[in-house]
């Protein structure tokens, strides 16, 4: 195996975007050092290696930094192209499709910018931080996007086809975090009846040891996200008088 | 098998322009179809049912969607002609990072400049100039973001040059006086036929925005 040099990953204990990179590194068998950041008190390392966005995850390979999770995943796939699995298909049309679905996950289903408590997630956000009719609209929007996902997953083992790939990594957070949201909101977001393919895919993802053992602890996640919801509801209530 | 390429696009879309520039840089023939976004064609709805947006490149009947993804696709399929992305993984990651930066920051902030007024507009203008300055710093002393030649980030960013006049008039500010190096870069890009043939007249873009504002009911 070629010398892979020094690999360091800056992330947070709960960062879903960081998780994607952990999966890629572990599945490809790439040794790395992990550093969990406190985003309310950003380290010099983070500020030095991601001066533009000061966000995680950041991959530092032989002293050079790569930022933005999807960019990092492609970098890992290209640099360690000899290590299976391939994270993107070879065929250009299929590659374009895989990139499209990864982007769709990020932009439509859930976008998270982890600045301590300041977080923005399009579809999930509204459902999670609002009440009443606004919340219903958010839930309806998620349902629409999940329908599209369900259609895309039908008859497939993974979003990428037979093998796990970047679009699966992009969506993987759903398996871990949706049950947390469901518990906090007291709603069902993904269910076996409406989403048989998605439920099947979720089980398949969870069965992968590297992924299963990397989930952040559920009780910590429930505490964290419940506090976030409370914070935003309180702010909304205060400003509406 | 013949290479059939159809591009669904609109003349004013900076995202569509990226694809046209990439195809022209590589000397690839394509059929251009102007879409009316208030009355989307069946072909567009069939080829991009999820977002129903342009640009869509249809290659031998198969759709490729999202401008950045289309440009990368074109670069991969026609990799021996005027390559846009570097060949090594690290510079490729840097190019993708900066293209992502342009994607996340420029269009939305620019849009705020022509859709808002007063303090909101002022703060959008300042934010916008800040992003342009970040890009200038990244460009540094290089003639192009791609180095010696037009590259992926150049193709991603240059379409917005045709929108600069519209932003400036709307926000009452000068991009030239704030970011002279970026303007010099833009003029350098315009010397490429692929760019000058693709970018519309900035005055026409401004007229378009005025009409769009009327249609959207924005003062």
Written overview of the protein:
Chain B: Residues 3-82 form the GST N-terminal domain. Chain B: Keywords: Transferase. Chain B: Its EC number is 2.5.1.18. The complex is a heterodimer of chains A (241) and B (219). By secondary structure, chain A is α+β, with helices and mostly antiparallel strands. Chain A is 55% helix and 7% strand. Chain A contains 11 helices and 4 strands; from the N terminus they run βαβαββααααααααα. Chain A has a 4-stranded mixed beta sheet with strand order 2-1-3-4, covered by helices on one side. Residues 111-121 of chain A have low confidence and may be disordered. Chain B contains 11 helices and 4 strands, in the order E-H-E-H-E-E-H-H-H-H-H-H-H-H-H. In chain B, helix 1 (14-25) packs parallel to helix 3 (67-77), helix 4 (89-115) packs parallel to helix 7 and helix 7 (161-171) packs across helix 11. The radius of gyration of chain B is 17 Å and the shape is globular. The A-B interface holds A 52, 61, 64, 66-68, 70-72, 74-75, 78-79, 92-93, 95-96, 99-100, 103-104, 148 and B 50, 59, 62, 64-66, 69-70, 72-73, 76-77, 89-90, 92-94, 96-97, 100-101, 134.
